[in-house]
Structure formats: structure tokens, C-alpha cells
Amino acid sequence: MAERRQIFLRDHDWVRQALMFEPRGHDVMSGSILYPPSREDCDIGVLFIEVSGCLPMCGHGAIGTVTVALEQGFVVPKTEGRLALEVPAGRVEVEYTRNGRFIDEVRIYNVPAYLHASDAKIDVPGIGELIVDVSYGGNFYAVVEPQKNWTGLDSMTADDILKISPVVRKLVQDAVEPVHPEDDRISGVSHVMWTDKAKHPQANARNAVFFGERGIDRSPCGTGTSSRMAQRVAKGLLNVGEMFVHESFVGTLFHGRVENVSEVAGRPAILPSIGGWARVTGYNTILVDERDPLAFGFQVK
User: How many CA atoms lie within 13 A of 160 on its CB side?
Assistant: First the structure.
């Protein structure tokens, strides 16, 4: 799927743009394209698309895709209750709970996650110095925790996040320039995770995740939750077998768990899992008319 991702971006990116950009999509639109797997140990191949490009992995996208694929009969599992996805980041195992024709819950056993860089210092105009970690859980995240010059999510509006995050992302990217040590096709800081104390009584932490040009994730973010667990394990704040319930800025929850320890090219890593649910909200037929000067979509910046 990593090679298919490169081919798609090179030859067929108009499909992503037509689906994700206005007028058919919006700033936080995301989706998936299903493929026959190229690996015998996988049930289905998945390419994750969004406004910013094609992601190596997407946790909430995987949960939604598995739900739809099973409920609509797009995939027939070899073993009921289990699936294996082939994604650009690797092989992802899935467990699910079925209730009649509906899927109640999906748990994603994600690719190895690790803390790539700790305590990177950047100077943000209008804020001052911020200390940021860079962690990988399927995508690279700049993780910002409350500190002297940033007191937490309650001090920010959504507009503040949209304004400041691109600046932070570029500064962190320039300072760290992360590249996955086992696959150099996976590189660059794509997301900024602003973290804070939880508000939900069941949650351990809360976040707002920025991506693309103007996107704030409405979910707690699956690869982001994996990245955050890897960061916390590396800093001695979370242990193998423990749950980490992550709350989004709109109050939704993912139930993360550290399944085991691992390595990524000799670096300490974890094997994370993320549990959540998705519901089908509708069906759509998309048309692209080449007579339309905006046939392949547009973005307002």
C-alpha cells in the first residue's frame, strides 16, 4: 500500500481533490479508498485521503472504514470478529463487535509508535518559546503540553488553533525534520496536538489536533492517541497494559491501550491499540463534470 499511495498521489490525486475539497467536501473532510490487499495476511487494503493528502495511517478513518465495509458486505472476514488491514504504514489488525447487522465497536491494533524527539524548543511569534515533543503513531505529531507560555486548551479558541498551528508545525518541522527510520517515504510533521487536562470523567487527557491547512479533528485522533501513548510511555507516565482514554475537544472518546513494547530501528516503541465506534450517516453519489471549471474542487484560504 505504500507503493500504491505513491502511485495514487502521482497519477490520481484529482480523485482526492474532487472528493475532499469544496464544493463536495470541506476543510476537515477525510475518507478512504478500498483496494484488494496485496498481502495474503490482510483482508483489505485501505488508502486514507484527506484535504492535505494521503496519510500513511488514520485511526478514526480505520474505525469508520471497518464499520462500513463490514455492514455493507464489502469484506468478508476469514474469522468473525477479526480483520487485518493493509495500509501504507503497514499491517493493522482489527477486532470488532457485531450486534446483528451493525458493528458496535472497533479496536485497531496500530503500527508501532515511538517518541521521535523530546523537548524540541521553538520560538513562536506572539507566544514565545515552546517546548514540544515529536511522536509517531502512524503520522508524525508535534505534541504541545501546557507550559509557561501556553496555559492550555481553555486559553484558545478554534480560530486561535487554526492560526497558530501552521506556524508551530513549520517551526517543529524545520527543527526536527522527522523521517521514519524504517520507511523514508513517511516523513514530516503533519499534525499538531494541543493537549490538556480531561473534562470527561472517564478520560485521562484531552486534545485538539490540527491537520491540513484549516482542519481540527473532531475525534480524539487514532494515530494521535497512539503517538501520545508512546510519548507518555517514553517519559514513564504510562505502562504496558494500562488504558489511556483520550478526549477530543468536542467530548468524544477513544479508549487507548498499551499492548506491549516494541522497537523501531532500535528505538524503544510501543504496540498501541485504540477502541472506538462509528455510525453510518448516509450514502452519496458523487459526480465530476469536466465542463465545470471547478470540477476538481477548490479551497478557500
Answer: 11
